[in-house]
Amino acid sequence: MVKDASELEITTESSAAVDAINGFVDQLLGVGNDAQVILKAIEADPTCAMPSAGVAIANAQVAAFYLFAGGSVALTKAKYYLNLAKSYLKRANDREKLYVVAIEAWANRDIAQAIAHHEAIAIAFPRDLASVHLAQYHYRNSGNSQGMLLIAEKVFAANRDNPYMYGMLAFGLEECHRLAEAEEYGRQAIALKRDNRWAHHAVAHVLETQGRLEEGISLMESLSDTWEYGSSAFYGHLWWHTSLYYLDIENFAKVLEIYDTRIWGRAKKDNGREQINAIALLLRLELRGVNVGSRWQELAAYLQPRIHEHTLAFLDLQYIYALVRGSKDDWAAEMLESMQTHGENVLPYGRPTWIEVGVPAARGMIAHARGDWENAIAELEPVLPDLYSTGGSHAQRDLFEQIYLDALIRDRQYHKTLNVLEKRNAARSNIPVIQRELANTYSQLGRSDEAHEAAQVALELSQRYQKVEQTV
User: Fold this and answer.
1) What is the mean pLDDT of residues 324-336?
2) CA 353 → CA 264, 340, 400, 450, distances in Å?
3) To 5 degrees, how large is the angle CA 100–CA 391–CA 433?
4) Distances (CA, A) of 81 to 63, 85, 137, 150, 348
5) How do residues 165-178 score in pLDDT, each as one tens digit?
6) How far apart are the C-alpha atoms of 62 and 52, rounded to whole Å?
7) H-helix or E-strand spanning residue 289
8) Strand, helix or coil at 9?
């Protein structure tokens, strides 16, 4: 019996397989661009019961690699390698067996069972950070921020020597709104390992949430050279985060440049996660009144494989919006019907997310994309509090509130508009567009003094950020 870099036992005698497993875990935790290194473990020892501290036997780790990619073809490949993994389980150790069944549950979309197995691994084998990483992934996509944090806290003491641990803890803290602690651990992670891209991501969330725009630009661009060695989708996602700062200082030319050269321009255009980076940015640009030209049409042409995929409702809501904006209304109609059917056939605990939240929200997204503000409001308003269950992070899901707010403004529902704007202003009072919309809303409600004050703040902020534009 040999051990991996985390001192976890692996059922193999092949040092080459162990090296490949160690490499895969490093790529997984560092969001690297060479996760396919795990294929070398199978080449070195095709009967290895478990390649690394957490993605299970070499074959199960390959299955996980494909499941991260998403799509029906990837799922077919994942199940092939899972079947191989299960055929070797008689000689596997307890951790390896747990890992295989966790990945199998993921492939079967039984995320509750997958999480339960990863939790069992965390208790018995706290050094298995790859397993913790997958658990956090599932918790995030189930809307369970507390679960993300608790599993990281559970294993922290056993992994104080691992720089990746600090970034994992930081993101859990951020999603639980413990921003000061999240920033502390995230910056510690970067100090320990500069190319710790998951930690870059955690700190980016903190700075964006707090409206620390200049700091966000400075930090992210100072680290961006390390993103060249990350996965293509995460490269685009980190630039997406960077673009949000430029969006808020209203340097729209820079945002379009990032879209064209860093996000869609560098994307693997058939990859769902990279499509989402592009959709989420185009949509935010349009909400700011920016003409994005033919970019929707170009993007939508690649979305047909997503129609019946249904990995997460959070993703489907954005795909379906892009289809309408890209003049693919027939595809959007087909996707909405498919979402309904999918929701009726998922495991019982997942049905409310799809049927009661996802499908109505999809109708609202379609309505907004068509300029039907009244129906967008009617569909989105009841489900906004429950959209956390569809997946994604707080920063990503904020898009849905922005769409709802835009519909309220366009439909001249000023009292509801004010409620949303004042909440957003309490969190981020230094965003020019919030101040301008406050000024307009106060004016429409006859509150002239407050309108004048908000307009003055908006002007001062715009002047401040124009100076930032001149230095970048």
Assistant:
1) 98
2) 30, 11, 15, 40
3) 150
4) 6, 6, 21, 31, 27
5) 999 999 999 999 99
6) 11
7) none
8) strand
